[in-house]
Amino acid sequence: MVAAFVLLVGVLSTVMLFDSANGATTRTRNNDQATNLTRELIEGARSIPYEKVSSPGVVTNLQLLPGLEDIDGGAYTLRRRGVNYLIGIDVCIMDDPKDGGGVRAATATFCANSAAAGTADKNPEDYKRVTVSVSWTENGRTRSSRQTGLINNPGSASGPAVRSIAPVGYGAPYVVATDVSTVLFEVTTSSKPAIVSWLLDGTRQSSPVTQSGTTGLVWRFNWAMQTLDDGAYVIAAEAADIYGVSGPSRQETVTLNRFPPRAPTQVTGGRTNFGTVEIEWTANSERDVVGYQVFRVGASAPVCAIATQKLDAFCTDPSPPDTDPLEYYVRAYDRDTSGNLRASPDSTHLMVVKSNNAPFPVTNLVLTKLANGDTKLTWQRATPEDPDSGDSTAFFRIYRDGVTLADRYGRYFDGSGGANVTWTDTNASSSHTYRVTAVDQRYGESAFTAPVSG
Predict the structure, then answer these.
(1) If pLDDT is split at 50, 70 and 90, which confidence band does 12 have?
(2) H-run or E-run covering 162
(3) pLDDT tens, 14-28?
(4) Domain-by-domain residue ranges, the chain?
(5) Are 247 and 190 spatial neighbours (Cβ–Cβ below 8 Å)?
C-alpha cells in the first residue's frame, strides 16, 4: 500500500506538470497568434489609401483584403488556428507638436496628445495613429493584445515630393556595421521646398535639414545614432512649400549592426516542486536579437537551445542533476552582416541551491482602476523580507486570473527598497483578478496575496 501510494503521488505530480506545461504552451501560442494578427492588421491599414484610414471606415476596407474577412457578419472577428479573435481598431490624426498646432477640421478626430489647435502649422495632419486591439477567450477568461502603428501622410500632389532619401556612402540594403557617431543622409525633392523635415520611426526630429548645393533640390541632415541599440529603424523625409503644403514623403529602412548583443541581465531561477529548474531573465533591448540559449555548467549541450527557445525569456531545465549547487548562465544572439549567429558575453552566473526558505508574503494588495483604463496595483513589502540570513526579495511576480504557471503575467524589479511598491497593467481592457508573490535571490516564492479584482 505504501508503494502504491508513492507511485500514485508520482503519477499525479507528472500529470500536473504536463497539464501546467500544456496550458502554458496553449497560452503562448494564442498570445503569439494575437501579436501576429495585430501586426497583420496594421500592415493591412498601411496598404489602404491614406484618406480611407479612419474610424470606422478602416474596418470596412480591411475586410476587403484577402485573409482579413469577417467570419460571421457581426462584430469584426477573425479566426486563426481554431480561436476566434475579436478585433477593435481606433484611428486618430496626430498633429506633431514640434512644428506647432494647426486648424482642426470639424469632422477630424485628432489624437489626445496632439499639439494644441492653432495657426502655426498649415498642414496639421502629420500622420495617423492606428491602434489595434485583439481579444479572445481562453479557458473561460478573456485575454487581449494591443499594438499601435503610424501611417505617414503622403501629402498633396501640389506640394514638393521627396524623390529619394538615403545614407551617404551606403548602398542598399542600408546597413551600418561600423561604430560611427553619425550617419549623413541626403534627400532629393521634385521641386524647391521651403523646408524639409525628417522623422525617425514616425517621430519628427529636431536636428536641422540644410540645403546642399545651389539647385534647392538636394538637402542633407545628420542622424546621431551612436547611443541607439542595434536593429532596424525607419528614416523618412517630407518637404513643404511656403504655404505649408507637403508633397508625398519617402522612407527607407536602415539597419544598425555594429556590435554583438549585450549580456542578458537580471537572471534569476531555482528549483521547483516539479523537480525542474526554472530560469528567467529580462529580455535584451536590442532590436536585432534573434534568440537566447541557456547553459548549465558541466552539461554537454544547452538546456534551452535557440531553435526552440527563440525570444522567450524563460527556460525550464526538465532534468537537472541532483547536485548542489547547480550553475547556469544565458547568452543572447543576433546575426552578423554575413548572416551568422553572433553570441553575447555570458550573463552573470546563477547559482541554484537546494536549501532555501521562501520569503515572507507581501501585504495590503490594493487595485485601482485608472482613468485611461489601466489597472494599478500597490502593495507593501514584508518586514523582514526573508527568513534566511543574507537573502532578500529579488523581484515580485504578478499573477492574472489564476495561480498556475500559465497565469504568470508579469515580473517587477523594484530597486528603490521602499515599503510601498506600485505596478501598472497597461493591457487590461477588461476586468481581471490579480495576486502577487515575492521571489527571493534563490528563487524561493512566497505565498499568494489575497486576490483583488477590477
Answers:
(1) low
(2) strand 162-167
(3) 545 545 444 455 567
(4) 2-152, 162-256, 265-352, 363-453
(5) yes
